Amino acid sequence: MYSNVIENTLLAYIANDESNSVPSLRCFSTPPSFGLVYEGPYQFRRVTQPGFVENEASTSKNVLACPICYKPLTWIGDSSLSIESAAGSSLQCNTCKKTYSGMGTHFDMTAASGSKDYGELMTPTTEFFRMPFMSFIYERGWRQNFVWGGFPGPEKEFELMKGYLKPVLGGNIIDASCGSGLFSRIFAKSGLFSLVVALDYSENMLKQCYEFVQQEANFPKENFLLVRADISRLPFAASSIDAVHAGAAIHCWPSPSTGVAEISRVLRPGGVFVGTTYIFDGPFNLIPFSRLLRQNMMQISGSYTFLSEREIEDLCRACGLVDFKCTRNRGFVMFTATKPSQN
Asked: For the segment 15-55, what is each residue's pLDDT rounded down to a tens digit?
């Protein structure tokens, strides 16, 4: 726990040091066990004193937990917490006695992972995005069409959300419902986060993300994990995550309240949730029976379709998040809310 505090404090200091002029900075815990060596803008190297063996609680990067009991997991195999660690590695819960296997490209952290006979179909919207065709076209035309709804584009969206994420720069971030990892890769390459977890329910989306990463030279794979999980059962312990991003996602979730409640659970006090979606208010409210129409669409598609700004703010508040803010552009909205800090 003590090492976590030092590491996060140092990362936050580096992230907010605009001069980045520190040539070499070493920070060792007491008693001496580990250290961080600053090697450049947003770059650090963790060093360990001789004879010291790290355990599960000694590094802030080891954030994965059992999605059934939320207890820590024991790594079997490569425990480097990189995109390559999913090949030939597994994670074991000593409480549930369940093993979560690496699938080559990602870790399967769903509750039903490893079941032989049981199969589970999700809502039509969720199953639609599990199709190989969708994972292929998502960044090859599908996402580009969001501009017609007011989405400013990935680069501008990232610049916008950095302002919301400023309090937690240097910490870890979960890219929930990441799709093919468009923003996950941006987060990792930015150097602003100690760990990026690209999380989605679609195996094919995660495989596509893996392919994109392998095609990029000098991609920071050691700071990057691919995880298959259900937004309603996130595989992280309570108060263990600094930031969660959900881009163009909440309108696809079967239950936005369950998803946001899970995000609130895993965020540490002061942690930040940032999301984008299409907004449904303004002139749309003039449509007769618009709320009834949306409810019928939800029953058919299995997704919640689009919410109004007031509904999103109310949802965040109901799930224990505060300081709601948003930025809008036609049908696009980027919103943020924060887990209350402990007094």
From this structure: 444 344 333 333 333 333 334 444 443 344 444 444 333 33
Domains, the chain, in order of start with CATH, read 1-58 (no CATH), 124-338 (3.40.50.150)
Q: Reply yes or no on whether the pLDDT at 60 is more than 60.
A: no
What is the rounded CA–CA span in Å between residue 265 and residue 244? 11
Token readout for 334 is 């980027």
What is the distance of C-alpha 271 from the center of its chain? 12
The terminus-to-terminus CA distance of the chain in angstroms comes to 19
- Please give the single-letter amino acid code of residue 94: N
Backbone φ and ψ for 200, nearest 5 degrees, come out as: -155, 160
Output the pTM of the full model.
0.79
pLDDT tens by residue, 223-241: 899 999 999 999 999 999 9
